[in-house]
Design a protein that fits this description.
alpha/beta; Rossmann fold; 2 domains; 6 strands; rod-shaped; nucleotide-binding; Small_GTPase; GTPase activity
Length: about 260
């Protein structure tokens, strides 16, 4: 009994510790707070000093809706001089966070640029995207109203909009929860469509096989009929000619 219990416990532990890997790319201009946004989520840390990011990746074991996710986050360069690897990072990811600073009006104008980068790589596939306005804690420096942000979100067809502060941790985790949920839902939809297409293809193949089988049976029956006619002709040729025989041979010539 103890052995069975230990084996069962081991199996439950193994299933519970299975992790799904998710790759997320964070995009945005320089100094909008991408790195602090990521660090607050992965390490609960915040740095007042600004250091330009070239390219970095961080990992976070994240439990969401009773499941564990191994999230790999791509922190991309914001400055034009350092963003040589941005497209490569985008191509490897399943979901995207486009960040702009509420204190920098120019950064909100660059949303379309990053959305276009995603579109250029994934073409007609609609990828999960979340829009994030950062630095909510800098009240006196905020240059973009929430209504403007909502209008921008609507115009760019990115309905999932969040306002965050890496310094105060406000709304950081909900961003990742939402994006992970979107990625999982997209995978389920693709899986369902794939299964539906496979059923349709299998049905078409089955009909095609049935038609081929019917054609083969018809060909075999035709060959069999021809063979029977040839045998009958051969037997008639070997018999004495009579009126009925001659009539039969004339009849067979019609085939």
């Amino acid at each position: 009994m103890l052995k069975k219990y230990l084996m069962k416990t081991k199996d439950v532990y193994s299933v519970a510790n299975q992790k799904k890997e998710v790759k997320i790319c964070v995009l945005g201009d320089a100094n909008v707070g991408k790195t602090n946004f990521i660090n607050q989520f992965t390490k609960s840390s915040f740095n007042e000093d600004y250091t330009p990011t070239i390219e970095s990746r961080q990992n976070k074991l994240f439990k969401f809706s009773g499941k564990q996710y191994q999230i790999q986050i791509y922190d991309t360069a914001g400055s034009k001089e350092l963003n040589l690897f941005v497209s490569d990072s985008i191509s490897q990811c399943e979901g995207f966070i486009i960040i702009y600073s509420l204190t920098d009006r120019n950064s909100i104008l660059r949303i379309q640029h990053y959305k276009t980068l995603i579109k250029n790589i994934f073409k007609e596939v609609e990828m999960p995207i979340v829009l994030v306005g950062t630095k909510m804690d800098l009240n006196k420096q905020i240059a973009i109203t929430k209504n403007e942000c909502k209008t921008t979100s609507f115009n760019h067809n990115i309905p999932n909009l969040f306002f965050t502060s890496a310094k105060s941790k406000e709304s950081i985790v909900p961003v990742f929860k939402k994006l992970v949920d979107m990625i999982v839902l997209k995978e389920r939809k693709v899986k369902k469509e794939t299964e539906s297409n496979n059923i349709r293809i299998n049905h078409i193949n089955q009909i095609h096989k049935q038609k081929q089988s019917q054609q083969l049976q018809q060909q075999q029956q035709t060959i069999k009929n021809q063979s029977n006619n040839e045998k009958l002709k051969a037997r008639l040729d070997n018999k004495p000619r009579s009126a009925s025989t001659i009539r039969m041979k004339k009849y067979l010539k019609l085939f």
